[in-house]
Automatic annotation (TrEMBL):
UniProt xrefs under Gene3D superfamilies: alpha/beta hydrolase
InterPro entries in the record: AB_hydrolase_4_sf, AB_hydrolase_fold, ABHD4
Coiled coil: none
Source domain of life: Eukaryota
Annotated organism of origin: Amphiprion percula (Orange clownfish)
GO biological-process terms attached to the record: medium-chain fatty acid biosynthetic process; medium-chain fatty acid catabolic process
Molecular function terms from GO: acetylesterase activity; monoacylglycerol lipase activity
Stored SUPFAM superfamilies: alpha/beta-Hydrolases (SSF53474)
Lineage: Eukaryota, Metazoa, Chordata, Craniata, Vertebrata
TM spans (from-to): none
UniProt-recorded name of the protein: Abhydrolase domain containing 1
Length: 342
């Protein structure tokens, strides 16, 4: 095997491609699970995927490639939504896409059917492949469908019984630094910034009353967009203040429900230096599952990774465990009855 390496290297003009090829020949690595012993026991019993060795798609090893390929080739299962538009007291509106799952055998009564709330990421929507696959997982178990920040702000009053996060950028400042690296800017930052600017353009007549739209549309990075638009719109003195307040890591200690967090060390959106390992180690209700590979909201496996991924299987198992063993997870996470509103 080793004597083949010099010859194989001739086929890889890019040293990074050669390195990823060599890594693909190595045995898959076991994810690291950071949490209390009791929460770990619960997860190993009811979410066996946490004990699996994660092996990325052999030809799609690196985090950037995982992220791009997932966006390009991931299948989109058909989902029929029922839209509900809620008008708020301040004149805004919230659009909800519901999957009622009336065909549920496990929960035929809609009044007792558990509901899974899915919140897409930046520029995301209900048509994203990872959202559609998550819905498939939940409907399979009979649930209906319709934040971390929300969980923290409302604590147990949120009505949530648990939460799961995928590829969260824990520190907004460090995330921006990573996304402004030349290759990450070219592959991701530039595209996302353009999408944000297009959204501003669609609502220009309203937004130009509160911000300099022409200046906003000249933004070349997400940070510049946040400096010129987001931070101003929400009343922050600076983008730094906004990023400090928007970073989820410091909110974890204020959560009052079990939360499982999945991150990959090679996620270009969320550098591993920002992972809240030290914070999670002292929290009984939060578990941090870390893989060496997986990219951003990707975690592709198999030669033809169009179907369910590692993260979607984890989502399905955790959601089922939460709804079917509520007392067990409350005990494992030291959740008291008054915290859950029972």
């Amino acid at each position: 095997m080793l004597d083949m390496l010099p010859r194989l290297s001739l086929y890889f003009k890019n040293p990074c491609a050669f390195r990823h090829f060599i890594l693909s020949l190595l045995p898959p690595q076991m994810p690291a699970l950071v949490c209390s012993e009791a929460f770990s026991t619960f997860l190993h019993k009811h979410c066996p995927v946490v004990a699996e060795r994660f092996s990325p798609t052999p030809w799609c090893w690196g985090g950037r490639l995982q992220t791009l390929v997932c966006a390009l080739i991931k299948s989109r299962p058909p989902v029929a939504y029922r839209n509900e538009l809620i008008r708020t007291v301040d004149g805004g509106q919230i659009s909800l896409d519901w999957v009622d799952n009336q065909a549920s055998h496990g929960y035929p009564e809609s009044s007792t059917r558990p509901t899974v709330l899915i919140l897409p990421g930046l520029t995301g929507n209900s048509q994203q492949p990872y959202v559609l696959h998550a819905i498939n997982q939940a409907t399979r178990h009979g649930y209906s469908m319709v934040l971390l920040n929300y969980l923290a702000r409302k604590r147990s009053e949120s009505g949530m019984v648990a939460g799961i996060t995928i590829s969260v950028p824990w520190d907004a400042q460090k995330s921006s630094d990573s996304m402004e690296e030349p290759l990450n800017w070219l592959l991701f930052n530039k595209y996302l910034t353009s999408g944000l600017c297009r959204a501003v353009t669609r609502h220009r007549k309203i937004l130009e009353k509160v911000v300099d739209v022409d200046y906003v549309l000249k933004a070349r990075t997400i940070r510049e967009f946040d400096e010129r638009f987001t931070s101003l719109l929400f009343g922050y003195k600076s983008c730094t203040d906004y990023y400090r307040d928007a970073s989820p890591d410091k909110k974890l200690p204020r959560t009052a429900v079990p939360i499982l967090c999945l991150n990959a060390a090679d996620d270009p959106f969320s550098p591993q230096t920002a992972f809240p390992v030290n914070i999670v180690q002292n929290l009984p209700n939060v578990a941090l599952l870390l893989t060496a590979h997986g990219g951003h909201i990707a975690f592709l496996q198999g030669l033809f990774p169009r179907g369910e991924s590692y993260m979607e299987r984890l989502f399905g198992q955790f959601v089922q465990a939460v709804f079917e063993y509520p007392k067990d997870i409350e005990k494992a996470c030291s959740i008291k009855e008054e915290q859950t509103g029972e």
